[in-house]
Amino acid sequence: MNLAERDLAVIWHPYTQMKTALPPIPIIRGEGTCVFDEDGKRYIDAVSSWWVNIHGHSHPYIAKKVADQLLKLEHVIFAGFTHPGAIELAERLLAILPDTQKKAFYSDNGSTAIEVAIKMCLQYWNNKGQQRTKILAFKNAYHGDTFGAMSVSGRSAFTAAFDSLLFEVEFIELPDDNNIDDLKVHISNLKSDLACFIFEPLVQGSAGMIMYEARHLEALMAHCKAEGVLLIDDEVFTGFGRTGKPFACNYVQTQPDIMCFSKGLTGGTMAFGLTTCTQQIYDAFLSDDKMKTLFHGHSYTANPVACAASLASLDLFLDPATQKNIDRIVEKHRAFADRINAHPHIANYRQTGTILALEWETGGNTSYFSNLRDRLYHFFLDKGIILRPLGNIIYILPPYCTTDDELDYIYAAIEEALDTI
Ligand SMILES: *Cc1c(COP(=O)(O)O)cnc(C)c1O
To answer: GO MF terms on file (predicted)?
Structure first.
């Protein structure tokens, strides 16, 4: 049996209808922007392996730091014990986050970082003796697949089987010039019930790279802050340069109470989650009453290897060459979008930083399950490019080391798809 056949005999893949799925493509090696299959066929990873990779695959600097850490200390219990990597990572990250962020809580992935944030907010009010249990979120939001994270995400085909079990959330539209005043009134009316407002800043990734303006986010954040509603900034996707600045919240003035990170945190090397919070939230859990403790943790909390990968990724991220690459990609995307926008098959495009999304004109049929999506996906694979359209939306989300030549190759493939499919 080849690798794909052995896989299908024993493995159940994420978001995959196993009855109709084609065999998976076995990848045996990664280098820079590319991954390679058994036969040596090269694929440009234009989606950063589900948005996690920022410095390229199997980066030698991260690999060396991880290997060194493995030989020193692979893991240690994090209750009652600590280790240098966890401390250094918290110190260095808090130093580059908004200065409201004072404490770091580690977990395992983006969804767990969200679970921790939600629990911090709900218990914050509980510890203060106030009944605030409602959470405010955007329609079409995506915050993860565990039950709490799913509850604060928009209801869709992905949540349908569980909808009756998800806790109640107040969903609002994305803000724009027309609805911002109504949204503020709505929030004011609910404020005494609202524990927190959770949002994906500037870009709703899973919803189809839906984007909204920083000034509208600022208006909502400032209003929530004035009304005493805690702000959870989910930077799991947008963190570490994706939007052009280090963090999406760098585009607004009002700063969040809680921030969540994962995806780019380790540079895409391994699973890891981080939730940071203000002194005010942390202090609400300090008590002689044990009931006020944050009773949350995971076996691998603050795993030293994940901390080492994150520290190495942070070194690379803070190298000025990385910001230059980000700026270069932003400019290249802009020029391509300007050029392609006139194409009759393009309904519209949108860009935030290194994320470029092109909406394919479909005359109304925009289903995730549409066959256009599958045709596009395979067209790009044949060309050695990994792009995973979300329905009729083609998005490019490259690692920052992607070269101009690689970007031009990806753009040319998209133009060819527009002309031939
Ligand atoms: C991917 C994602 C998550 C969930 O992270 P996982 O590591 O996949 O659990 C949460 N929030 C946002 C905005 C994401 O894009």
So the answer is: 2 iron, 2 sulfur cluster binding; adenosylmethionine-8-amino-7-oxononanoate transaminase activity; dethiobiotin synthase activity; pyridoxal phosphate binding
Parent domain of 242 = 73-318
Alpha helices in 175-303 (DSSP H): 180-190, 214-226, 279-283
Task: Give exposure, 24-34, as e/b (b: 16+ Cβ within 10 Å).
Answer: eeebeebebbb
Q: How far apart are CA 206 and CA 273, in angstroms?
A: 18
Among 111, 232, 355, residue to substitute to test ligand 1 (most atoms within 8 Å of Cβ)? 111
Does 190 share its domain with 291? yes
204-225 per-position pLDDT tens digit: 999 999 999 999 999 999 999 9
Instruction: Provide the pLDDT for residue 276.
Output: 99
- Whose CA is closest to 214, among 225, 200, 227, 226? 200
Query: What lines the ligand 1 site, CB under 6 Å?
Result: 109-111, 114, 142-144, 200, 205-206, 234, 236-237, 262
What pTM, to 2 d.p., does this model score?
Answer: 0.97
Q: Read off the pLDDT of residues 182-198 as tens digits, 9 standing for 90 and up.
A: 999 999 999 999 999 99
Same domain for 346 and 408: yes
* Whether residue 243 sits in one domain with residue 116: yes
